[in-house]
Amino acid sequence: MKAIGVMTGAVFLLAAPAAVAQQERDWGGIERCATIAEAGERHACLDRELAALGLLDRAPTTAAVRAPVSPPVQARAVPSSAPSAATSDTMVYEESEPRAPVIADMTSSVATARLDRRRGLEVEAANGTRWRSTSSVSLRRAPPEGAPFAVEQGALGSYTCRIESSTYFKCERLS
């Protein structure tokens, strides 16, 4: 048993220099490609090297590489009433204003409410908006008509619904 282990170790030690030499040959072409400044030529060179190593199944193709294009920025000249530090050729870029939330805070009352089997709740408020819970709600029965109902906007476009003063749950607007 010990002899088999020694023989296996000897085979790996003898094969190691060959593997290192193969790895250096493989990386030599890739390192040459990395020194090419133009992107299209560099990619074509890498395609050829990877195909020669058998790592790229398809034939190398040359395609023009497009430079990333930034969207145009709206600029306006500084008005003459600007502070004296700005010159007439100074450009000030307009800041985009944040969008107003669809519903920041809403207070209403329950017009209709329905519990489903998955412990979800659908509420129609007195103002006509409809809401559905996205998290489970711990109610044994649907809230009565006329119960206070409020919605607050949370982070990243989420909403938190509240029935009466104690039941909070995450919800989404249906209409």
Structure description:
With 175 residues, the chain is α+β, with helices and mostly antiparallel strands. The protein contains two helices and eight strands, in the order ααββββββββ. The strands form two sheets. A six-stranded antiparallel β-barrel has the order 3-4-5-8-7-6. A two-stranded antiparallel ribbon has the order 1-2. Among the domains are: 2-52; 105-173. The chain has helices at residues 2-34, 39-52, and strands at 75-77, 91-93, 105-115, 121-125, 130-133, 148-153, 159-163, 167-173. The radius of gyration is 34 Å and the shape is elongated.
Largest sheet: 6 strands, antiparallel, barrel
Question: H/E element string?
Answer: HHEEEEEEEE
Unreliable stretches covering 5 or more consecutive residues:
none
Distance between the termini: 75 Å
- SS class: alpha+beta
Quaternary structure classification: single chain
Summed over residues and divided by their number, the pLDDT gives a mean of 76
The count of DSSP E runs of length 2 or more, i.e. the number of strands, is 8
Number of helices, where a helix is a run of at least 4 consecutive DSSP H or I residues? 2
Helix content: 25-40%
Overall, the morphology is elongated
Q: What percentage of amino acids are in beta strands?
A: 25-35%
User: How large is the radius of gyration?
Assistant: 34 Å
Order of strands, widest sheet: 3-4-5-8-7-6
Features:
single chain; 175 residues; alpha+beta; two-stranded antiparallel ribbon; 8 strands; elongated
Q: What would you say about this model in short?
A:
This protein has helices spanning 2-34, 39-52; strands spanning 75-77, 91-93, 105-115, 121-125, 130-133, 148-153, 159-163, 167-173.
